[in-house]
Amino acid sequence: MSTAVAPASARTHFFADTAVLTGRSLKHITRSLDTIITTTIMPIAFLLLFVFVFGGAIKSGSSNYTTYLLPGIMLITVASGVAYTSYRLFMDLQGGIFERFQSMPIARSSVLWAHVLTSVIANLVSVVVVILVALLMGFRSGASVGAWLAIGGILTVFTLALTWIAVIAGLSAKSVDGAGAFAYPLIFLPFISSAFVPTSTMPGPVRWFAEYQPVTSIVDSIRSLLTQQPVGGDLWIALAWCVGLLVIAYVVSMAIYRKRFS
């Protein structure tokens, strides 16, 4: 009997601790809304630049370039937002908060999960802001509720994967600049994908990389859902990439965390 109760008690302890620490982290976000505003400025700037400056010259094969562009901008929004997770995690480490948490009777992994869940919530809010701006720019979609839920699911798993990568950077960085620098390649990866132009317009080696890197399958899946087109195998490829990266990043993050605070 006691062996069955202990795991259940431990799970309850973990969820309760994670909820409390996530609330703490979210309060910091709500007290500094400039974080979300700053996160959305660059994606919105890209959206405005490509639609109103480059859009007339880009042949995307779509009558509405804003709709074509939006999935890639969503991913850029998430990639730029997770840099703040790495930064906040690094600052907590430098401030000694983790050491204080270690001396308290809380689940150890709940500290990291609080940062991760805060990242998911903040980044999804940023994505919603970007979608609202896109609506003002002419974006329209006849996607069903189910399609939007699928899009939300893809973005959530994608955000979780990138956030756990951000946790690795935050735990390993030696400086504030190093904590956020990891995000730059993630932000520019959509530029070498189908996010802005069809991959068929790219030269051989670039086209090969663009077609087989994870962002293209994710972008194509979201775009198909928005335009009510068959998703095909892109959805499963996108989910495989996201889940694979998530599992690897989580395992590495926890290994680094345990080694640092063992």
UniProtKB/TrEMBL annotation:
Keywords: Antibiotic resistance, Cell membrane, Membrane, Transmembrane, Transmembrane helix, Transport
Predominant cellular place of this UniProt entry's protein: membrane
GO molecular function: ABC-type transporter activity
Subcellular localization: Cell membrane; Membrane
GO cellular component annotations of the record: ATP-binding cassette (ABC) transporter complex
Transmembrane segments: 33-56, 68-90, 111-139, 145-169, 181-199, 235-257
Membrane topology of this protein: Multi-pass membrane protein
PANTHER family: NODULATION PROTEIN J (PTHR43229:SF2)
Protein name: Transport permease protein
Naturally occurring in which organism (per UniProt): Microbacterium mangrovi
